[in-house]
Specification:
Protein name: Cysteine desulfurase
Order of helices and strands: EHHEHEHEHEHEHEEHHHEEHEHHHEHH
Structural class: alpha/beta
Cofactor: pyridoxal 5'-phosphate
Distance between the termini: 32 Å
Oligomer: single chain
Helix content: 40-55%
Shape: globular
Number of helices: 16
Keywords: Iron, Iron-sulfur, Metal-binding, Pyridoxal phosphate
Strand order of the largest sheet: 2-8-7-6-5-3-4
Family: Belongs to the class-V pyridoxal-phosphate-dependent aminotransferase family. NifS/IscS subfamily.
Pfam families: Aminotran_5 (PF00266)
């Protein structure tokens, strides 16, 4: 099997699964319980929080655990909106955000908030000047992803941070779900970033665990109320085993980041060069200013799902665009925002690499692609 769909989800490391099993089996107490089983669970929970904070270079008190990236994104947008609505009701998000952001923004627009969408250029990068023009005295939140999940464009977070430097009343949120282990932490956690979202299963952790970084002193309304967990901001019994496993996954990813990125980048270069030699192949992703693991391309006249299933017959797994959009049968929203015609956007295929992959898999992929290319020749005429 060749798995080239790592932007959708990654395989949990064996060590991560062992951590999960050990904690779930031996330290199964509720952290809110007063007895020693609860105390042991609290100790693991807080040790995991400190490890995550140390790895991200932030304070222990700035890390909050959620059920995943979607919850973290929802909490960031809705939590800020309802906490700050007395000061303004204007929100800006980019036009290429993940559905967790875009649908949250849409929901807020249906509940009295004004949402503007910052445009992107033809390569999928946010137009910083256009975003700056959207800011008004009523603006309370700007949300921009660090790495686009569909084409891999690395967004100008530092430039946006500079725009917001003299606007302390505007909360800046970054969806960093696709950034862990792909670009330096300093890129997406600038001193101006107030909130950032992460998801464990994107960096070889387990599903059902997310992280929200909240800069100390920033206020956020809770989405979940109840028992008062996570400093009364996110009530529900914590998934201690999943959190401990996620902390270990994050450490492992950072420990091997330099070597892994060199390997992944080399594979991407080979794929980009090889795919670019085929007539009728449109490369939507580039090398410079793009994440090292994502390549999105299209084969003229052939819908993306046809290619996905053709590869699947050879036990090779890729996707059309994001996992959320592909199953719904929607063309890549990022490509549409980039000005790509819908018919062309519907041809999109996304390869997303990991250091679990190797050059022999790249060669096998290209061999099978040549076969599919020939097989679809009549369709493309």
């Amino acid at each position: 099997m060749i798995y080239f769909d790592n932007a959708a989800t990654t395989r949990p490391y064996d060590e991560v699964l062992r951590t999960y099993q050990e904690v779930a089996t031996k330290i199964f107490g509720n952290p809110s319980s007063l007895h020693h089983l609860g105390s042991n669970a609290t100790r693991i929970l807080e040790a995991s929080r400190k490890q995550v904070a140390d790895l991200l270079g932030v304070s222990y008190h700035e890390i909050f655990f959620t059920s995943g990236g979607t919850e973290s994104d929802n909490w960031a947008l809705k939590g800020v909106a309802f906490e700050k609505e007395r000061y303004g009701r204007h929100i800006i998000v980019s036009d290429i955000e993940h559905p967790a952001i875009k649908e949250s923004a849409k929901w807020l627009s249906e509940h009295g908030f004004l949402v503007d969408y910052a445009p992107v250029d033809s390569r999928g990068f946010v137009d910083v000047a256009a975003l700056a023009e959207l800011i008004t005295p009523e603006t309370i939140l700007v949300s921009v992803m660090a790495v686009n999940n569909e084409v891999g464009s690395i967004q100008p977070i530092k430039a946006i941070s500079e725009v917001l430097d003299d606007k302390p009343t505007v909360t800046f949120h970054v969806d960093a779900v696709q950034a862990i282990g792909k670009i330096p932490v300093s890129w997406y956690l600038t001193s101006r970033v107030d909130l950032a979202s992460f998801s464990s299963h994107k960096f070889h952790g387990v599903r059902g665990v997310g992280i929200l970084y909240k800069k100390e002193g920033k206020r956020l309304a809770p989405l979940l109320t109840g028992g008062g967990q996570e400093h009364h901001l996110r009530s529900t019994t914590e998934n201690v085993a999943g959190i401990a496993a996620s902390a270990r996954a994050l450490r492992m990813v950072f420990d091997k980041e330099e070597i892994a990125l060199a390997k992944i980048s080399k594979m991407k270069q080979v794929l980009l060069q090889a795919l670019g030699e085929f007539d009728g192949v449109h490369l939507f992703s580039g090398n410079q200013d793009f994440a090292p693991n994502i390549i999105t391309f299209g084969l003229k006249g052939v819908r993306g799902e046809v290619i996905v299933h053709a590869f699947e017959e050879h036990d090779i797994y890729v996707s059309t665009t994001s996992a959320c959009s592909s199953k719904a049968g929607r063309p890549a929203g990022t490509l549409m925002a980039m000005g790509v015609p819908q018919k062309e956007a519907q041809t999109a295929i996304r390869i997303s690499l990991d250091d679990d992959n190797d050059m022999s898999q790249v060669e096998q992929f290209l061999t099978i692609f040549k076969h599919i290319y020939t097989k679809t020749q009549k369709v493309r005429k």
